[in-house]
Amino acid sequence: MTAQKRGLFVVLEGGEGVGKTTNAAFMREYLENKGIEYSATREPGGTPLAEELREIILAPREESMAPMAELLLVFAARAQHIEHKILPVMEQGQWCLCDRFTDATFAYQGAGRDLGTSRVEALESFVQAELRPDCVIILDAPVEIGHQRARARAELDRMESEAMTFHQKVRDAYLARAAQAPDRYEVIDAALPLVEVQVNLAKVLDRLIDTWKNHE
Ligand code: TMP
User: Fold this and answer.
1) Ligand 1 pocket, Cβ-based, cut-off 6 angstroms
2) Which is it for strands 135-140 and 38-42: parallel, antiparallel or unpaired?
3) pLDDT tens across 32-41, in order?
4) Does the predicted TM-score (pTM) go above 0.90?
5) What is the DSSP string of 27-51?
6) How many distinct structural domains can be found in the chain?
7) Domain-located, residue 86
Protein backbone atom coordinates (compact mmCIF):
# COMPACT_ATOMS: atom_id res chain seq x y z
CA MET A 1 0.00 0.00 0.00
CA THR A 2 1.37 3.43 -0.88
CA ALA A 3 1.51 6.01 1.89
CA GLN A 4 -1.18 8.68 1.90
CA LYS A 5 0.10 11.88 0.26
CA ARG A 6 0.11 14.65 2.84
CA GLY A 7 -2.29 17.53 2.18
CA LEU A 8 -1.05 21.08 1.74
CA PHE A 9 -1.15 23.60 4.56
CA VAL A 10 -2.40 26.90 3.11
CA VAL A 11 -2.86 29.97 5.28
CA LEU A 12 -4.80 33.13 4.54
CA GLU A 13 -3.59 36.28 6.29
CA GLY A 14 -4.08 40.03 6.27
CA GLY A 15 -4.89 43.03 8.42
CA GLU A 16 -8.36 44.03 9.56
CA GLY A 17 -11.08 44.52 6.94
CA VAL A 18 -9.11 43.24 3.94
CA GLY A 19 -11.90 40.84 2.90
CA LYS A 20 -10.53 37.66 4.47
CA THR A 21 -13.95 36.13 5.18
CA THR A 22 -15.33 36.67 1.67
CA ASN A 23 -12.15 35.43 0.05
CA ALA A 24 -11.80 32.42 2.34
CA ALA A 25 -15.30 31.39 1.17
CA PHE A 26 -14.19 31.89 -2.44
CA MET A 27 -11.12 29.69 -1.86
CA ARG A 28 -13.22 26.91 -0.31
CA GLU A 29 -15.62 26.91 -3.25
CA TYR A 30 -12.74 26.99 -5.73
CA LEU A 31 -11.06 23.94 -4.16
CA GLU A 32 -14.38 22.10 -4.01
CA ASN A 33 -14.90 22.70 -7.73
CA LYS A 34 -11.40 21.39 -8.43
CA GLY A 35 -12.12 18.24 -6.43
CA ILE A 36 -9.55 18.99 -3.73
CA GLU A 37 -10.48 17.62 -0.32
CA TYR A 38 -9.81 20.15 2.39
CA SER A 39 -10.72 21.12 5.89
CA ALA A 40 -11.16 24.82 6.67
CA THR A 41 -10.20 26.15 10.07
CA ARG A 42 -9.04 29.32 11.78
CA GLU A 43 -6.77 30.82 14.42
CA PRO A 44 -7.02 31.61 17.16
CA GLY A 45 -9.47 28.72 17.36
CA GLY A 46 -10.24 25.65 15.29
CA THR A 47 -11.09 23.24 18.14
CA PRO A 48 -13.58 23.72 20.99
CA LEU A 49 -10.83 24.45 23.53
CA ALA A 50 -8.90 26.71 21.15
CA GLU A 51 -12.15 28.59 20.41
CA GLU A 52 -12.57 29.18 24.16
CA LEU A 53 -9.06 30.62 24.21
CA ARG A 54 -9.99 32.82 21.23
CA GLU A 55 -12.83 34.32 23.28
CA ILE A 56 -10.39 35.13 26.05
CA ILE A 57 -7.84 36.61 23.64
CA LEU A 58 -10.25 38.86 21.74
CA ALA A 59 -12.95 39.92 24.24
CA PRO A 60 -12.72 43.56 25.30
CA ARG A 61 -12.35 43.80 29.10
CA GLU A 62 -11.46 46.32 31.75
CA GLU A 63 -8.16 44.73 32.77
CA SER A 64 -5.58 45.25 30.05
CA MET A 65 -3.88 42.08 28.83
CA ALA A 66 -0.11 41.95 29.13
CA PRO A 67 1.39 41.49 25.64
CA MET A 68 3.31 38.44 26.86
CA ALA A 69 0.09 36.87 28.18
CA GLU A 70 -1.50 37.51 24.79
CA LEU A 71 1.45 35.89 23.01
CA LEU A 72 1.35 32.80 25.21
CA LEU A 73 -2.42 32.42 24.90
CA VAL A 74 -2.17 32.58 21.12
CA PHE A 75 0.45 29.82 21.17
CA ALA A 76 -1.54 27.77 23.70
CA ALA A 77 -4.49 27.83 21.30
CA ARG A 78 -2.12 26.95 18.45
CA ALA A 79 -0.62 23.95 20.26
CA GLN A 80 -4.12 22.54 20.75
CA HIS A 81 -5.12 23.30 17.16
CA ILE A 82 -2.01 21.69 15.66
CA GLU A 83 -2.35 18.45 17.60
CA HIS A 84 -6.11 18.04 17.34
CA LYS A 85 -6.81 19.42 13.90
CA ILE A 86 -4.06 20.61 11.58
CA LEU A 87 -1.81 17.53 11.68
CA PRO A 88 -4.61 14.94 11.57
CA VAL A 89 -6.22 16.73 8.60
CA MET A 90 -3.00 16.78 6.58
CA GLU A 91 -2.11 13.23 7.51
CA GLN A 92 -5.46 12.13 6.05
CA GLY A 93 -4.36 13.69 2.76
CA GLN A 94 -6.70 16.69 2.98
CA TRP A 95 -5.54 20.24 2.54
CA CYS A 96 -5.74 22.38 5.64
CA LEU A 97 -7.04 25.84 4.76
CA CYS A 98 -6.34 28.00 7.77
CA ASP A 99 -7.62 31.52 8.33
CA ARG A 100 -4.50 32.99 10.02
CA PHE A 101 -1.56 31.22 11.62
CA THR A 102 1.85 32.21 13.00
CA ASP A 103 2.47 35.07 10.58
CA ALA A 104 -0.37 36.79 12.45
CA THR A 105 1.62 36.36 15.66
CA PHE A 106 4.72 37.92 14.07
CA ALA A 107 2.53 40.78 12.81
CA TYR A 108 0.22 41.41 15.80
CA GLN A 109 2.27 40.39 18.83
CA GLY A 110 5.80 40.66 17.42
CA ALA A 111 5.33 43.98 15.61
CA GLY A 112 1.99 45.43 16.80
CA ARG A 113 2.69 44.75 20.49
CA ASP A 114 6.44 45.32 20.06
CA LEU A 115 7.38 41.92 21.51
CA GLY A 116 9.93 41.43 18.74
CA THR A 117 10.64 38.69 16.26
CA SER A 118 12.99 36.51 18.29
CA ARG A 119 10.46 35.68 21.03
CA VAL A 120 7.89 34.67 18.43
CA GLU A 121 10.53 32.61 16.60
CA ALA A 122 11.46 30.82 19.83
CA LEU A 123 7.85 29.85 20.50
CA GLU A 124 7.33 28.91 16.86
CA SER A 125 10.14 26.32 17.06
CA PHE A 126 9.03 25.14 20.50
CA VAL A 127 5.33 24.70 19.67
CA GLN A 128 5.42 23.82 15.99
CA ALA A 129 8.69 21.90 15.62
CA GLU A 130 9.05 21.59 11.82
CA LEU A 131 5.47 22.56 10.96
CA ARG A 132 5.28 25.60 8.65
CA PRO A 133 2.64 26.53 6.07
CA ASP A 134 3.29 25.42 2.49
CA CYS A 135 1.92 28.73 1.30
CA VAL A 136 0.80 31.93 3.04
CA ILE A 137 -1.53 34.17 1.06
CA ILE A 138 -1.55 37.73 2.36
CA LEU A 139 -4.46 39.97 1.44
CA ASP A 140 -2.95 43.43 1.55
CA ALA A 141 -4.65 46.82 1.64
CA PRO A 142 -3.82 50.25 3.09
CA VAL A 143 -4.83 50.32 6.76
CA GLU A 144 -7.28 53.19 6.24
CA ILE A 145 -9.35 51.07 3.85
CA GLY A 146 -9.31 48.04 6.12
CA HIS A 147 -10.21 50.06 9.19
CA GLN A 148 -13.20 51.66 7.49
CA ARG A 149 -14.50 48.26 6.41
CA ALA A 150 -13.98 46.71 9.87
CA ARG A 151 -15.70 49.64 11.58
CA ALA A 152 -18.73 49.43 9.28
CA ARG A 153 -19.16 45.75 10.16
CA ALA A 154 -19.85 45.30 13.86
CA GLU A 155 -18.55 46.00 17.33
CA LEU A 156 -14.77 46.07 17.29
CA ASP A 157 -12.80 43.43 19.22
CA ARG A 158 -9.59 44.15 21.18
CA MET A 159 -7.37 44.05 18.10
CA GLU A 160 -9.68 45.92 15.76
CA SER A 161 -10.03 48.79 18.21
CA GLU A 162 -6.26 49.39 18.33
CA ALA A 163 -4.84 52.64 16.92
CA MET A 164 -3.90 53.08 13.26
CA THR A 165 -0.19 53.02 14.16
CA PHE A 166 -0.70 49.47 15.49
CA HIS A 167 -2.39 48.38 12.26
CA GLN A 168 0.33 50.01 10.20
CA LYS A 169 2.97 48.01 12.08
CA VAL A 170 0.92 44.85 11.44
CA ARG A 171 0.73 45.55 7.71
CA ASP A 172 4.44 46.39 7.46
CA ALA A 173 5.35 43.19 9.30
CA TYR A 174 3.29 41.01 6.94
CA LEU A 175 4.91 42.64 3.90
CA ALA A 176 8.40 42.32 5.36
CA ARG A 177 7.87 38.61 6.05
CA ALA A 178 6.61 38.05 2.52
CA ALA A 179 9.62 39.86 1.08
CA GLN A 180 11.99 37.60 3.03
CA ALA A 181 10.61 34.34 1.63
CA PRO A 182 8.86 35.10 -1.67
CA ASP A 183 8.65 31.40 -2.60
CA ARG A 184 6.31 30.67 0.34
CA TYR A 185 4.27 33.88 0.32
CA GLU A 186 1.77 35.38 -2.11
CA VAL A 187 0.78 39.00 -1.57
CA ILE A 188 -2.53 39.88 -3.18
CA ASP A 189 -3.66 43.47 -3.56
CA ALA A 190 -6.97 43.50 -1.69
CA ALA A 191 -7.71 47.13 -2.58
CA LEU A 192 -8.52 46.01 -6.15
CA PRO A 193 -12.13 45.22 -7.09
CA LEU A 194 -13.24 41.86 -5.66
CA VAL A 195 -13.37 40.10 -9.06
CA GLU A 196 -9.74 40.97 -9.69
CA VAL A 197 -8.71 39.83 -6.22
CA GLN A 198 -10.41 36.51 -6.90
CA VAL A 199 -8.80 36.08 -10.32
CA ASN A 200 -5.45 36.48 -8.58
CA LEU A 201 -6.43 34.06 -5.82
CA ALA A 202 -7.50 31.48 -8.39
CA LYS A 203 -4.09 31.75 -10.09
CA VAL A 204 -2.33 31.04 -6.82
CA LEU A 205 -4.59 28.06 -6.09
CA ASP A 206 -4.12 26.65 -9.59
CA ARG A 207 -0.36 26.79 -9.15
CA LEU A 208 -0.57 25.07 -5.74
CA ILE A 209 -2.88 22.36 -7.09
CA ASP A 210 -0.53 21.69 -10.03
CA THR A 211 2.54 21.46 -7.84
CA TRP A 212 0.77 19.24 -5.32
CA LYS A 213 -0.64 16.87 -7.93
CA ASN A 214 2.71 16.50 -9.67
CA HIS A 215 4.65 15.96 -6.48
CA GLU A 216 5.20 12.40 -5.29
P1 TMP B 1 -10.01 37.32 12.54
O2 TMP B 1 -9.31 36.04 12.18
O3 TMP B 1 -11.46 37.14 12.69
O4 TMP B 1 -9.60 38.44 11.68
O5 TMP B 1 -9.58 37.74 14.02
C6 TMP B 1 -8.55 37.21 14.70
C7 TMP B 1 -7.85 38.30 15.44
O8 TMP B 1 -6.83 37.72 16.23
C9 TMP B 1 -7.21 39.34 14.54
O10 TMP B 1 -7.38 40.62 15.09
C11 TMP B 1 -5.74 38.98 14.62
C12 TMP B 1 -5.60 38.36 15.98
N13 TMP B 1 -4.51 37.39 16.06
C14 TMP B 1 -3.38 37.72 16.78
O15 TMP B 1 -3.30 38.79 17.34
N16 TMP B 1 -2.35 36.81 16.83
C17 TMP B 1 -2.41 35.60 16.23
O18 TMP B 1 -1.46 34.82 16.30
C19 TMP B 1 -3.61 35.27 15.49
C20 TMP B 1 -3.70 33.93 14.82
C21 TMP B 1 -4.62 36.19 15.43
Assistant:
1) 20, 42-44, 58, 74, 99-100, 104-105, 108-109, 159
2) unpaired
3) 999 999 999 9
4) yes
5) HHHHHHHTT--EEEEESS-SSHHHH
6) 1
7) yes
